[in-house]
Amino acid sequence: MVLLDSELGSQKIKKQAKDVLDIESEAILNLKESINGQFVEIVKEILNCPGRVIMTGMGKSGLIAKKLAATLASTGTPSFFLHPAEAIHGDLGMVTNDDIVITLSNSGETNEVLNIVPAIKRIGAKIISMTGGLDSTLAKNSDYILNTGVKEEACPLDLAPTASTTATLALGDALAISLLKVRDFKPEDFALYHPGGSLGKKLLLKVDDVLHVREQNPVVNLETNLKETLFTMTSTGMGSVNIVGDDGKLAGIITDGDIRRHLEESPDLLNKNAGDIMTVNPKTIFKEKLAAEALKLMQDNEIKDLPVINENDEPLGLINFQDLLKAGVL
Length: 330
Prior knowledge:
CATH architecture of the largest domain: 3-Layer(aba) Sandwich
Strand content: 15-25%
Distance between the termini: 50 Å
Number of helices: 15
Largest sheet: 5 strands, parallel
Number of strands: 12
Number of domains: 2
CATH superfamily of the largest domain: Glucose-6-phosphate isomerase like protein, domain 1
């Protein structure tokens, strides 16, 4: 058990932690030199790849490869991780000549990775190596090289991969996001691959789904007196009501805010009809639209209630922030 003076020990811990961050941040910044013509060519190769991007690596590099495969896959580049030790026992059958294999090895001399290189070449897949060993066996047998070399590891014993794995992860992320940008990958695309997450719910949920939260469609005619209009509004708990003409099409909307404003101006308010105080040409949305679009429309126009209409301009219901909250959009 190591015992340290409390103050002295605390200072040493803080200094060591800050030294690690300094070393690793410098390693990441130095990667800018790797964003060169070859990096651009690699992006183009992956964009034109008819197959998948297969990530492989051993040990700590393997863990980074797994993460990068997941990042690529979720941002529009089909990708998976191939364990090099399993690959030489049959999993190389996952690789085709349409694929690109990205191999991770800091030294470029990792035996398990080198063992599968000849087979990958016979299959016909291109090899991109992410390595700090630019003169290594792996680099010499690769079609492209991404230099992930670092000046030093953050580990004071120079044993545990630290700065090198951080650099590889950062450069891999730069590759994935560059591909995302070039593909014009949108939030809706991201949500498609994350339907179970909160983002997927936000971006894939339809307005029609939000309507079912309440199952209410408060509607009155232009000629309906305000007393009955208020009763319809309060009985549904919506705080607003759609106003229609004799043709059944949406003519306007009345909200509780409208009622309060007109009360100050008109003492005889209850003698008026819905058409007298309604807001004409309100913002509307179709039920087939994404709930996220409804949210943006409401935020941009600073409104709390939004009529939902069909293609004939007939109101199907109303949604508000409470409904969006219950549906999980907010």
